[in-house]
Amino acid sequence: MSKKKVFIVDDDDIHLTTAELYLKSHYETYTMRSGSEVLEHLTTNDIIPDLILLDIIMPNMDGWEVFKKIQELGHVRHVPVIFLTSLEDEEKAKKAFKIGIKDYITKPINMAEIQKRIKVILGQ
What we know:
This protein has a five-stranded parallel sheet, sandwiched between helices. With about 120 residues, the chain is of the alpha/beta class. Helix 4 links the parallel strand 4 and strand 5 (about 105). It has one domain (about 5-120): Rossmann fold. It has helices at about 15-25, 35-45, 65-70, 90-100, 110-120; strands at about 5-10, 30, 50-55, 80-85, 105. The longest helix is centred in the C-terminal third of the chain and has 12 residues, at about 110-120. Helix 2 (about 35-45) runs parallel beside helix 3 (about 65-70). Helices cover about 45% and strands about 20% of the residues.
């Protein structure tokens, strides 16, 4: 059985590396450092992720805008997205769930917790 594919999008190298190191034994991981990089990957490659971990606060294009653009791409709009953020903001979390984000996780990231949440979302 092949591993589920998880895209990890974060402009912070420490968060990106930590998430990749922790998740790569369970998932096929792909790391990207910006919203434009993940959108380019989604439009030019045949690889469709099973889940996207998406940082909210990134330069040039934040996670909100990236999610909106993902929703405009018909072939990947079904892919569950988990927002990662350093901001604990209940109103933003409510807004995220309202627009279709599957989970909203605040940093610092507890990788064991993220893995549990990914398993639930992917039905594993």
